[in-house]
Amino acid sequence: MLPLLSLLITTFYLILVLFFFWSGLVFPNFPLITNNLRGLLSPPGRPHTPAGCEKPLSQEQSRRVFTDSFPVSPASKGAEGSRYRHRALLRTRNPPPSRPLTKVALAAGRKWTLSAAAAAGSASPRSWDEAEAQEEEEAVGDGDGDADADGEDDPGHWDADASDAAAFGASGGGRPHARSLAAEEIRQMLEGKPLADKMRPDTLQDYIGQSRAVGQETLLRSLLETNEIPSLILWGPPGCGKTTLAHIIANNSKKHSIRFVTLSATNAKTNDVRDVIKQAQNEKSFFKRKTILFIDEIHRFNKSQQDTFLPHVECGTITLIGATTENPSFQVNAALLSRCRVIVLEKLPVEAMVTILMRAINSLGIHVLDSSRPTDPLSHSSNSSSEPSVFIEDKAVDTLAYLSDGDARAGLNGLQLAVLARLSSRKMFCKKSGQTYSPSRVLITENDVKEGLQQSHILYDRAGEEHYNCISALHKSMRGSDQSASLYWLARMLEGGEDPLYVARRLVRFASEDIGLADPSALTQAVAAYQGCHFIGMPECEVLLAQCVVYFARAPKSIEVYSAYNNVKACLRNHQGPLPPVPLHLRNAPTRLMKDLGYGKGYKYNPMYSEPVDQEYLPEELRGVDFFKQRRC
Ligand SMILES: Nc1ncnc2c1ncn2[C@@H]1O[C@H](COP(=O)(O)OP(=O)(O)OP(=O)(O)O)[C@@H](O)[C@H]1O
C-alpha cells in the first residue's frame, strides 16, 4: 500500500513539475525551446513549422531560434529578449500583409514588396500588429541599445539597411533621384520609430565620416575587421555615431559567436553589471566564449561603479566599450582609462551629414529638387500615381546638414519632423475644404526643415564639458579684447539655455581679475549686471549681459592686483614653520591689559603727520618685500 501511495505522490509531483515547466512558470523559455527543439530534431525531409509561423523553418533556422531562445543578458530581459528574437525570425518568414510599406520594400534586394505583401494574406494582420506593438514596448522598456546591440532588432529592418546602402550608394555624396512614393506611404513610414534609429547603419561600409577614428588606414579599423576588439572608450558629441559604432561591432561580433551585451548607465544598477560579469565568467570558462559589454553614457556611473569593471577588464573576462559625451579624463576612472583605448569621434562634417540625410531621403522615396533648375513641381499634375509625390529643395538638405551641427540624430529627426509636419498640414487643408482630394505634389522647403530643427541644433550641454568650454572661450575672448567673439560665446551659452546668473558671476570675477584697477568701475558694471539679471531674468537680461561683455572686451586690462595677490598667497603657502606674529605696534589695544602688554605701542597714526610716515607694516621677517615685483618672500 505504502509503495503504491509513494508512487502515486511521485507521479503527481512529476506531472506538476512538468506542467510548470511547460507553462513557462518556472523557466519561461521552456515552451519556446521545446517548440524549436522539435524543429531542430525534425528530419530534413520534414521541416518543422513552429506556432505562429506560416511556412516551415529550415533546420538551420530552427537551430538559430533554438540557441537564441536562451537568455543571453539581463539587458535583453531574459526570456522577453529571446521571444523578441523568435518573433523577429518568424517575421522574416511571414511578412505582414497589412503592414505599410517600409524602407525594406524600397531597397534593392528587398525582403518583400507591397504586392508580395498583399499577396501573402494568410498571416493575421491583427496578431502581427499586436506583436509589433508589444515589441516596441519592450524595446522602449529595455532602452535603445538593448534592442540594437543584443541582436533583437527586426531582422527585416536591419537587413534592409545594408541593401539600402547598396541601392543608394550610401557612401557617395551625390543626390540620385529616388523612386517616387505617395505621400501617404511616406507618412506611414515616418510614423513610429525615430528616423535616426531606422537609418542606423549595420556595417562599417555604411558608417559615414569619422575617418580619423575608423578610416581605412586606422588601427581600430583593422582590429575591427579582424574582430580583435580591444576595450574602448568612445568619446564624442551627441549624435556623432558612438552607439552606431557599438552597434556595428555588435553585428560583427555576433558573426564570430562573441556575446555582446548592452547596458545604459542611465538605468543600470551595479547589480546588473555584476550579473553580466558573472555570466561572462561562466561563458568564458564553460564555452570559451568572449563577452563584449557596451555601456552607454558610462560617465553616469560613479567612480566606485566604474571600479567594478577593473579586474574583469584586466583579466579579459569582458571587453568593455564605453560611450561618453564627456571628457573621459574627468569622468572615467584613471585606472579604467589606462586599460582602454580612447577613440575620439568628432562632430560629423557637413558633407557627411549631407550623405546621411540623402541616404534617408532616398530610402523614403523623396525627390530632391535642383534649385539651379527653376521648375515648380507643384504646378505639374502628378504622374501615373493617384497620390502626390514628395519633393525637398536641395538647399533645404544643405541647411539641415549645416544646422544639425554634426549631430546626425538631430538632422535625421529634424527631417522626419519637417516631412511629417508638411504632410499633415496638407492633410488638414483637405479636411477643411471638405472636397475630394485632387492630387498635387508636396514640397518641403528650407523653412520647413528650420522649423523641424527648431532650437535643437544649438549644441550646448549645460551640465557638461560644453558649459566649461564656452565660458572659458568667453573669458578668453574678453581678455583678448575681441568684442565679436565675446558676444558670440555669450549668445551661444544663453541660446543653449545657460543660467544668466552663472555668466554674470563670471563677469564679476573678470572685472577684478582681468580689468582690475585699469578701470575700477568694471566691477560696478558687473555687479549691476548680476543684479539686473536677478531682477528681470531671461530673455530680457540678455542685453544687460551683452552690454557688460562688450564693455569688458573694450576696457583696458590690468592683472596687477590679481598677480600681486597670487604672490601673497604663494608666500603664505610656502612659508616654513609658524607664521610670523603681527607686529605689536599694529595691534589694536582696546583694554588696559593689552596696552600694558605693548599692543599698539609706537604706532604712528598717519593723519597726524603732514609728511609720509616711516613705519613698518609687514612682519619683521618680510620687511622690504614687494609683492607687486617679486613672488618669493
Ligand atoms: N557615422 C554615421 N554614419 C551614418 N549614420 C550615423 C552616423 N553617426 C550617427 N548616425 C545616425 O545618427 C543616429 C544617432 O547616432 P548614435 O546613436 O550613434 O549617436 P551617439 O553618438 O551614440 O549619440 P548620443 O551620445 O546622444 O547617444 C544613428 O541612429 C544613425 O542613424
UniProtKB/TrEMBL annotation:
Pfam name, any one: MgsA_C
SUPFAM superfamilies in alphabetical order: P-loop containing nucleoside triphosphate hydrolases (SSF52540), post-AAA+ oligomerization domain-like (SSF48019)
Compositionally skewed regions (Acidic residues) per UniProt: 130-153
UniProt KW ATP-binding keyword: yes
A GO CC annotation given for this chain: nucleus
Keyword ATP-binding: yes
Keywords: Acetylation, ATP-binding, Cytoplasm, DNA replication, Hydrolase, Immunity, Innate immunity, Isopeptide bond, Nucleotide-binding, Phosphoprotein, Ubl conjugation
Intracellular or extracellular location(s): Cytoplasm
One GO process term, biological-process aspect: innate immune response
Coiled-coil region(s): none
Positions of the UniProt region annotated as Disordered: 68-101, 118-178
Annotated catalysed reactions: ATP + H2O = ADP + phosphate + H(+)
Main location: cytoplasm
UniProt domain AAA+ ATPase: residue ranges: 228-348
GO molecular function: ATP binding; ATP hydrolysis activity; DNA binding; enzyme activator activity; single-stranded DNA helicase activity
Family membership: Belongs to the AAA ATPase family. RarA/MGS1/WRNIP1 subfamily.
Self-association state and partner proteins as the record states: Forms homooligomers, possibly octamers. Directly interacts with POLD1, POLD2 and POLD4. Interacts with the N-terminal domain of WRN. Interacts (via UBZ4-type zinc finger) with monoubiquitin and polyubiquitin. Interacts with TRIM14 and PPP6C; these interactions positively regulate the RIGI signaling pathway.
Role played: Functions as a modulator of initiation or reinitiation events during DNA polymerase delta-mediated DNA synthesis. In the presence of ATP, stimulation of DNA polymerase delta-mediated DNA synthesis is decreased. Also plays a role in the innate immune defense against viruses. Stabilizes the RIGI dsRNA interaction and promotes RIGI 'Lys-63'-linked polyubiquitination. In turn, RIGI transmits the signal through mitochondrial MAVS.
Protein name: ATPase WRNIP1
